[in-house]
Amino acid sequence: MTVAHFFCFALRPPLVDCVKERDEMPGQIRHKHGSTAASKPGGGHTKGRTTGKGHSHGGDSFACMEMLCKAFEMAPHIVLVFGRDRFLFVNSHFEKVSGYRREDICQAGFDQFSIFAPEDRRGIRSEIRGVLRGRRQPAREVRILTEDGQILFCTLTTRHITVGHAEAVLATLTDITAEKRAVRDILKAKDKYQDYLDALPIFVAVLDSSGRILVANSMAAKTLGSGRHRLVGLDLASSFLSPESAAAFRERMSGANNGSAAAEMHLYTLIAEDGSSRQVYLHLSPLRSSDERVAGWVVSGLDAGREMALRDHVESVERKYMSLFRQIPIGIYRTTPDGRVLIANPAMVRMAGYSSFEELAAAGIKEDSFHPDTPRKAFLEAVESKGRVRNFESRWVRPDGTTICVRETAWAVRDDDGKTLYYDGIVEDITEQTTARSDLDWQMEFERLVTGIALLFMSAEPSAADSVITESLKQIGEFLDLDRGYVFLYRDNMLFQDNTHEWTREGVEPQKDRLQNLRAEDFCWSNAQIRDERIIAIPRVSDLPPEAAMEKAEFEREAIKSLIMVPMVVGKDILGFLGFDSVRTEREWPERVTNLLSLVAEVLGNAIVRRRQQAHVGAQQGARPADPLVDPFLDHAQQLRLRRGRQIGGLVEKQGSAFGQREAAIPAPVSPSERSALVPEQLAAGQLRHQSRAVQRHERTGGAQRPLV
Hints:
6-stranded antiparallel sheet; Beta-Lactamase; 22 helices; 4 domains
């Protein structure tokens, strides 16, 4: 088989009629202006192998023709070979995209130009004839009419070739339908979105796949120094970028075509229409068709000078808010439902008891970070059910074991499916306020207790004073949750001391009978302080100094862990001391306890003096004069009320400032319904302030000696 035989076979039967056997005519496939691409012409057989049928092949021509045919079939483009009156060859890709069958359109009598749109046929026919006459034609855009009536936009490139002695035209067509449709959609949407584009304060331009400008907003026109309509059709890189910037821009376009472009801005040198240059940041984003080919580009950017000014402004605002974030005394946080800490300002870190955010983030918010009385579960249930909590109070346990009271406002941030992503919140430390409120409540309760004790003394006969003292020890011991209360009285010029009155909690062994006729000098350390009218408050018996060895031995014998002893002084006389023991646990003795026990010691001391006086004088007849016992109490009770008024005022001022901080710290605006809910609280605060001012006026006018009604 000759090369001509092979070419006829590879290019399908329609070429058989126009190519003769090598024995009759030399078979060549060559460009009209190029070198031969087949066997050498001649009348005899060329060197090569001989087939069983006696035909020989030119080895080089055979291999060349085989490669050419395979290339036609494997090409991703349409390949057509035009004869003078019919197709000599079409590749399989044309069949795939057009729907025509190769056997049908390569038959004699089929109009090879009928595959094109009617308005293109005349021009293509003229072009093919020109190429057959030896004229070169530039690439042009044509439309193919598919079997089912669809239009394919293609770029047509033609070249003259010779098959044997047959003149033909090799045509390649590149499908640009997707690009054309993308450009059409862009232009269709241009008018619709032009106003939006013009409103943007940044450079925005839409390019076609080759980089020519299709749409530009007003900022782009201003930056390029040209009218918006004059920009359309100009190549952005070659028309407005410096050579170095143009090369970099095209390189990134090529990278995006290969899927490797990074989504970031780059600095380019832009040459405006008037010749001035400036630095601009441009971001290049590809517009892809349904088959993932790049159909166009969106270029956005900023003038570098403007961008620097904007960045400075952003950094300034960021510094301002970061300073507020760091210095505000209210904690700000963002945590996840599982306890991870995403954001926390320094105030929040300090409240939680950590030295740095990294430590807090590593530890997270755990269940043991909350006091058992206010578990984290309660907070989670509240914020999940309502989406937000306001003024939620709880107690946090720090890593060092200390507890603080906090009040927080938080809200849940959820995704589109309603799943909670994290909680944003603000929190304030209200430990001082809570403690002050607790102290005030405690003092009011203690005042009621002492008032009851005074009423007992006022209503009791002198002979019942001992039982009233014991009952007083019981009530105070139970109120303070202590285990033993007692009174020791001195005698014989303070040489001896006796345990005259005692109360013990159930299960605690009494010591009164054993502690009689004690020599004061045996307990010189404690008695020296009592004589100096000093209160002895011992949180831990084990910490007593060596000079208190006798006292320590006695206290340990009685299984005492903590105790307090308060001198009972009436006038200039030291009668003895009032004491309370804690056997079950160690106890601290805050100032509020020592102050109020001092009051009780004075009341009991007066009761004892009164009893002694009654023993000497005897019972008096007739109406009893005012009980001298209650006069000191009334004075102390009045002082308690004055002190309480001052504490209420101070607490209210703290609460008021906390209200103001909380109101200012809440980022979300307060709705009218929420604001109306605060009215009762604000009215109550106002009333308490009024009471505080009344107390202060009472003191300034010298009314402290008169009972407050």
